[in-house]
Specification:
Oligomer: single chain
Number of domains: 1
Distance between the termini: 30 Å
Number of helices: 5
Largest sheet: none
Order of helices and strands: HHHHH
């Protein structure tokens, strides 16, 4: 489980980096082509849209693996490290598992339909392959379930940032 979780985490990190590079260069190309040459390409806009969508959805898995995801817990700073880990395990069991299982169940018919028609851009002449971007949602749901299982099996330790702070160990 350790090797698989680290492989998933590093693969998602690399994909996010590549998507960010594609996003930056595509957006710069759009600006240069539009404002210097007066030319616009719809497919280039779709590349920006698809890469941004994929980057946002995949960053959920990456930030969870780094333990940098958003928490709405105002009392967390006052707890010791063990209590934080216990709260994280509880939230994985009762929030993460049901939510991402529900997402997986709920989006499956839409994804199968998108694949059946090989859904593309809504714009005429746009880029094909929207069905691939939509397929990232169930993939992220599965990856989050795997990452959550890793954290549970390791007693609340995440892939990175596992070392407790000095004041937590006292």
């Amino acid at each position: 489980m350790d090797k698989m979780s680290y492989y998933i985490h590093s693969a998602v990190e690399k994909v996010c980096c590549y998507l960010l590079i594609v996003l930056i260069f595509s957006e710069i190309s759009i600006v240069i082509l539009r404002y210097i040459y007066g030319v616009g390409f719809l497919k280039l806009h779709d590349i920006v849209l698809y890469s941004f969508s994929a980057l946002v959805i995949l960053s959920i898995v990456y930030s969870f693996g780094c333990n940098t995801h958003v928490r709405v817990d105002v009392l967390r700073d006052k707890h010791c490290h063990n209590t934080k880990r216990l709260i994280d395990c509880f939230s994985i069991l009762f929030c993460l598992y049901p939510l991402f299982s529900f997402i997986l169940y709920w989006v499956w018919p839409d994804i199968t339909y998108a694949w059946s028609i090989f859904e593309g851009s809504r714009e005429t002449g746009g880029l094909a392959g929207l069905f691939l971007v939509k397929s990232l949602l169930p993939l992220v749901a599965v990856l989050m379930l795997v990452q959550g299982s890793y954290v549970l099996l390791n007693g609340g330790h995440y892939l990175t940032n596992n070392k407790p702070a000095a004041e937590d160990t006292l």
